[in-house]
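Example (one chain per record):
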Amino acid sequence: MSDKKKSPASKRAVIGGRTRKLDSVPPKTKTISEVDLSKVVDSPRTSDNQQKATNPDLLRKTLIAILITSLVFAIGIQVGESRNSSSVDEAIRSVIESSAKEIDRDVLERAAIEGVLKASGDEWANYFPREALEIFEAQSSNSFTGIGIYLSKSRGGVIRISSIQEGSPAANSDLAIGDELLEVNGTQVTGASLASTVALIRADIGDRVDLLVARAEKKILATIKAGKVQAKSVELTQVTSSVALLEIASFISGTAIEVSRVLQSANYASGVIIDLRNNSGGLLQEAVDVAELFIGNGIIVSYKVNESEKVFRATNSNPIKVPVVVIINRNTASSAEILAGAFQDRNRGVVIGERSYGKGSVQELISLDDGSKLELTVALFLTPSGRIIEEVGITPDLAVTPGEIGLKSLQVLGGLASFISKE
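Predicted structure:
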């Protein structure tokens, strides 16, 4: 069983294969509000970020979508050509007119919106500038230009590296899963939205991206050259002659199809181990489709907005019926938790490892007049038995330390196989 990527702690920053002392980092940095994103994101490009959980059936005039990674609350001012006369608008106008230096109004408006979202109390608040939307619409593709990292935002607003794509430029750097992102190319991102941060990281092939991260009490500066990234969310390993290990790193477009494809060429008569460790989420429908491969009929997940209930059901007349063990850890989140919860509640598999992160909220995207969007939290996901995931997580059936995962997985599968054979 392959281990997840871990990078050793370092007192020096890796710069293109060399090291550089952190005291050589330029001391002056800009804040995210000082950056004009229209100049950062000026054409359709993909980017690195944690994937969103969406359901195409919910797209309406307001472009409602289910997203599980980052959330937002609304603001009462308009942006774009038509602006309301408000104290916020008056304050922005006064700053522009009184400032000794030229200030871009769009930059101030974005900062104001993000400030309102933060003050709203929605811990997953996010705002998508018009220029950055194409990045997020393309982020679930299997191939993109970037450095190969995916980001998530914690309840406290800290942005961390949630995943590093194998074979990507970032995989050869000193970055590690769990690192807190402090600066991108000299711009502070502490307290910034995911959308703004991802826009800053966006790069063309060959472009240099400087990331300053914090790990424990150390700061590490990594310089990475952007390249073509092939997103691979599924990897299958034949653990024994009759047991298959299925590692799902994230739920991007085509993940469920890829899971089905790799299983067709594997021998898993004695069982399947599904490893969801460090899987921070992704497209909701992909997670539902993976669950449906193993769960024949019935509820996978549901939620209710006002009086309207949405239920995702499995309708597979010929599901895979071998024993299943699902591995989770503290970084398993969002749609990955939904998958683990479905296996658990439907008595379709045994969940082992650590209690998961606890991210299970429903959001909708609301369009603003200038083409930008707000992401609003509207409901909580429920497992098949009605359990809430948000802030609770999925508690494993069997708590297992990382060092024991491989052996325990096989032992549990053996026990399940023995139990099934006696039925």
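Caption: The longest strand covers residues 297-305.
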